[in-house]
Design a protein that fits this description.
Layout: H1 2-25, E1 40-41, E2 74-78, E3 81-86, E4 97-101, E5 114-115, H2 116-131, E6 135-139, H3 149-165, E7 172-177, H4 181-190, E8 197-201, H5 212-218, E9 223-228, H6 236-248, E10 254-259, H7 270-278
Parallel strand pairs: 1-5, 4-6, 4-7, 7-8, 8-9, 9-10
Antiparallel strand pairs: 2-3, 3-6
């Protein structure tokens, strides 16, 4: 009987020691709570170098230290479409206007799901350009418009509306990403007198648009293209063909940069776009 009691005591002691060890060495629990952002699709980063890499913008530099007060961005309806607007508090006739044309899976409001990277990108662009004293505009543009005539006409309406409301006589800069390259370039061709400069990031381009007479219409407009070398969504060869065609037909103010190892995403720091627009 004594042996049984001794064995029981040893067993209970062992269990107690194990339990004490576990409590002392248990890893701390993460008490933080992940709150999903309404209307934003959270996507894990892509491991392979191709495709859309849904991660925050590369090369993002924080907006400069504020030197002027800025208004909070707001969404207005212009020509039946939601338009996100970033305004500096102080606007004069010389305040530059920057108009962004979005990619095929991007939306400017939370009414439609949009990748997390775009929600960050649009705010980064808006904050930076407004701090520099510009108006930044991004329209829904009928969603996946693929450069339709409707989207080009809409761009014209948005630009005319913003310029008229604010009595602008300043430059109008266009910036298009991915699918946004289509309406951006088609607008420049249709309204060259309203287009000061064109910046393009990984642009979709419809080459049948661009014969000699078409290039003639945009020859006076400086154009800068950035394209990732590992972009498999919109291959760099497409912007290379456009660049070569433009040069062949006498466009002397077009530049193209291939960014090594970059994929199809917002990897461009807004400071580089701003430098091109204002140099």
């Amino acid at each position: 009987m004594g042996k049984v009691i001794s064995a029981a005591i040893i067993l209970l002691s062992t269990i107690g020691i194990v339990a004490w060890y576990y409590v002392q060495h248990e890893p701390p629990k993460d008490s933080s709570t992940v709150i999903p952002t309404k209307g934003v699709t959270q996507t894990e980063p892509v491991d392979n170098p191709g495709g859309i890499k849904l991660t925050p913008m590369a090369e993002v530099t924080s907006a400069p230290t504020p030197t002027r007060s800025v208004t909070v961005s707001n969404v207005q309806i212009i020509d039946s479409q939601p338009v996100q607007l970033y305004f500096p508090v102080s606007i004069t006739s010389n305040t530059p206007l920057i108009v962004y044309s979005h990619g095929s899976n991007e939306h400017v409001t939370e009414d439609e799901p949009t990748p997390a990277f775009f929600a960050e990108a649009i705010k980064t662009y808006g904050d930076y350009f407004v701090e520099k004293g510009a108006i930044f505009v991004a329209s829904e543009m009928y969603g996946e418009n693929w450069g339709s005539s409707e989207s080009v006409d809409h761009l014209n309406t948005v630009i005319e509306t913003i310029r008229s409301r604010n009595n602008l006589t300043s430059a109008t800069y266009l910036y298009g990403f991915s699918m946004g390259g289509l309406p951006t370039l088609r607008f420049a061709k249709a309204y060259p007198e309203q287009t000061t400069k064109v910046a393009l990031l990984a642009p979709t381009i419809n080459m049948p648009d661009w014969d000699q007479s078409s290039i003639e219409q945009i020859k006076s407009i400086p154009i800068h293209i950035w394209h990732g070398s590992k972009d498999v969504n919109v291959p760099p060869s497409l912007s290379a063909e456009f660049f070569q065609t433009a040069q062949t037909y006498g466009h002397e103010n077009i530049e193209r940069e291939v960014v090594q190892d970059e994929v199809h995403r917002h990897f461009l720091a807004p400071a580089k776009i701003w430098t091109f627009f204002t140099e």
